[in-house]
Structure formats: structure tokens, C-alpha cells
Amino acid sequence: MKKIILGFAIVSFLCGYGSVSAYSIGDRDISSYSIDELRAILTQIQKKIEGMKVVEKGCFVSESDLSLGDGEAGVMSADVKRLQDFLREKKFFDYKSTGYFGKLTSAALVTYQKSVGVGGTGVFDSATRLKVHASSCTAGKEYAVTTEVKKPTIEKKQYEVQKGSVSSLGISGSESSVTWTVGGYSSQGFKVVWSKTSGATYPTRSTDKYYYTSNPGDRSANLDAFNGSGTYYVRVCEYLGGRCGFYSNEIKVSL
Q: Considering its fold, how many domains does the chain have in total?
């Protein structure tokens, strides 16, 4: 506040609006400064004031869940990039935002989740989304890369493995527990998708939910009634990174 008043006093002096002899800078009376010196001081004050204008807004990342492999081939890459931007602003992610959700992004997200008390799944889920969207982020900030590294490229290559080769999938179950059988091999695991509306998919619709397991050997999952009790339609699919490949049959369960 004192600097703003001093700035006004300097402007008044420069424009000839009156005496400012009552003001001082350090041990010197302001009237002892030359016009050029005062202009230089005013420029410094203005720069300081501008630097103090930190504009913040709510952080928005995505309304969808995000997990390992998302962003590949451009699917949901904008959402993943916003997540990486957020994690970097909050000092959890030290790399360039690539729009691909790899191991580095997952590890950064786990650290963030633990810091805000929502576990450490490494999945951008509903609980994490609430925490992120309730945070404040710098508006219009350019997210600079602090270190020139090639790790984002390595991150992507870690998941550029041979696609799953699944020829059949069958799912069964009752209530909250489902199991499936596989013909072939899905190197990136499976997505179980369920909804009160038939035909749940991944990427999900607004009415769908998914469970992801990156372990190709997993054959079961537990579901929850995220949209209230009732009948849910369930499928499992071969995960191909950002999208599903082969889908199973669809079953109905009561949750």
C-alpha cells in the first residue's frame, strides 16, 4: 500500500499537481530526486505491482476418469495434458506435458493423491477429480519445462508394446463380483465397464463407469452401484491404450 501511495506521489510530482515534500524514499526527501531518478523509481514500482497481480482460478482437468495408456493416438490427450499441467504447477511432475498417460504421470498422480488424502491409485478418478477441481490454479500460466530431458519420450515408449491379441472374451457374475475368461492375450490388461444403460464403452459415456487392471493375468473385479441401486449392464474389454479393442458379451447384475 505504501508503494502505491508513493507511486501516486511521484506521478503527482512529475505532472506538477503539487508538492510532495512530505514523502521520502529511504533517508532522502523525495524532492531531492531528479525527474529522471523519480521516473526510474516509478518504473520499478509499476513492475513490482504488476508482478504482485497473481490471478487464480479453479483448476479444471477432465470430467472423465483417466488412467495408464490414455492419450494414445490422440484419444483424451487434451484431458491428460491438462492433468500433467496441473501436476507440474503443483510441483508433482517435472516433465513436459505430452498428453500421454504413462508411468511418469501415474507416479506423479499417486504422490499428489497421497498428499490430499485420496489414496494412491494412480487413476484420475472421481475422488481425485473433486480435490483437483476444488484447487486454485494460475490463470493463463505458461507451464515451462524446467529441465530439458527426453523422459516424456521414454514414458511413451514404455507402453508402446505389442497390442493385445484377444480372440474371445466371456464375462459372468452376479451382484458385485464378476469374472471373465480370455482367448488370447491382452498385454495392457482389461477395462471392465458398467452402466444402467446397455452398451457401456471405453472411453466412457457420462453414464458409464470403468475399472482398470493393467495385469494381463487378472480375471475378476468388484463393482459398485455408482448410480444408485438397480440393474447394471456389464462388459469387459481388451485394453489397447486409450481405447478398448475386443469386447465381451454383456451381462446384467443387480447392485
A: 3
Q: Are 105 and 80 in contact (CB under 8 A)?
A: yes
Same domain, 103 and 15: no
- Tell which wins on pLDDT, 204 or 92: 92
Summarised one tens digit per residue, pLDDT across range 83-96 is 999 999 899 999 98
Name the one residue in this structure whose C-alpha cell is 490471478.
55
Range of the domain at 200: 165-254
CATH assignment of the domain containing 78: 1.10.101.10
Residue 138 and residue 95 in one domain: yes
**C-alpha distances in Å from residue 22, one per residue of 26, 28, 91:** 13, 11, 46
The C-alpha cell at 166 is 484377444
Q: In the chain, where does DSSP find H-type helix?
A: 2-15, 35-51, 77-89, 103-115, 126-133, 151-157
Per-residue pLDDT tens over the stretch 83-134: 999 999 899 999 988 999 999 999 999 999 999 999 888 889 889 999 988 8
Contact 251, 170 (CB under 8 A): no
pTM of the model: 0.45
Pair (9, 88) in one structural domain: no
Cβ atoms within 10 Å, residue 162: 8
For range 147-168, the mean pLDDT: 50
